[in-house]
Amino acid sequence: MVWEVVEGIEKYAKRLDDRSNVDALLERAGQAKVVLLGEASHGTSEFYTTRAEITKRLIEEKGFTAVVVEGDWPSCQQVNQYIKRYEDAPATPEEAVKAFNRWPTWMWANEEMLELYRWMREHNDGRTDGTKIGFYGFDVYSLWESIDEVIRHLGKKSSADAEAARQVFECFATFNRNTESYAVSAGLLSEGCTDEAVKLLAEVRRHKHAYTTREEEALDLEVNALITANAEHYYRIMVRSDNESWNVRDRHMVEVLHHVMKFYGEDAKVIVWAHNTHVGDARATSMLEEGTVNVGQLVREQHAPEDVYIIGFGTYTGTVTASEEWGLNLERMHVPAARPGSWEELLHRTGPYDKLIMFNEENRPIFSDRIGHRAIGVVYRPRYERYNYVPSQVSHRYDAFIYLETTQALHPLSVPVVLV
């Protein structure tokens, strides 16, 4: 019942501007090995700045070792090299983010992230390589860029790996770096590069110990080979099944996450930044009936309960950076007030201020009924707002929730866009 949820919010919600409440959140989250930080949109400034402050404190106070984001591995490697001051790395964060040239560029090339990149670099200064904080992307979209990286690593070597890389390159070259063309050919005409991509991954894994670990070469090579195989799978089935391609993508994200954790060793503690639809446990949403899984569900299933902590985010109203169509110019859009009876509207109804709720065995039943919970993507049409709500058991989808009453649009940097 709505009144029970309202009463529960009034009883258990804490003010976000009270540091002691945030301290309590960090104390619990800091005990985990994986902390997943969500967002209700990819274009809200406060989601980025709030996650950045939580991230800094988890790194400084709780010993977290890496940040993994919903971005492309090759592009994020430019930031990783910058913050670790690797040889030939970009000298400035502005130079590093030029690598984020695939639409939507604004997700990781924005003013809010520049500040975090600088902070991570300063934090790493004076530390040895084994103790420096890393920054990685775990998405699956970078098919062509990852092939390029594998060729770069193996192109000068005379080995089975190099031959496998050459075969992959020759096969994919016929599609002129066009993912739509590949998806149609592989998914509908069965004319793809599956065998070549799988063989490449197998060869790289078989011989990975032969490669130097200088500047994370072995990790970079293996993950890019993994992306080549999984991206091929993703695009091949994309034209036939939205749900299964989603599953391929999120399973890939978790696989990359575990590669990063393995790289940092037994003491690895990783912070994940991704949309609520990825980090919030799918089993507590309508995704369950659709046969889809996500990162939050998979990580919970594969780790002990105390080792995973998921924090969702939401807002009542404000502005957002998004676009009305895929690939079009970004806009600063108005986010209308949350729909009556939604999770965000009930949080607003109990007082127009920023809140934090930590779920536990005592209060989870109060918030266990399915209720509409807003999700805004990079493509957003406010006039169709009613379709942007995911039925969710909020207290089972997340371990905690941060509510920001009024939020503003993200501040993108100007980066030349490549549409793929």
Automatic annotation (TrEMBL):
InterPro entries assigned to the protein according to its UniProt record, in alphabetical order: Emycin_Estase, Hydrolase/PRTase-associated, UCP036794_erythomycin
Any GO BP: response to antibiotic
Top-level lineage group: Bacteria
Protein's UniProt name: Erythromycin esterase family protein
Species of the source: Ectobacillus ponti
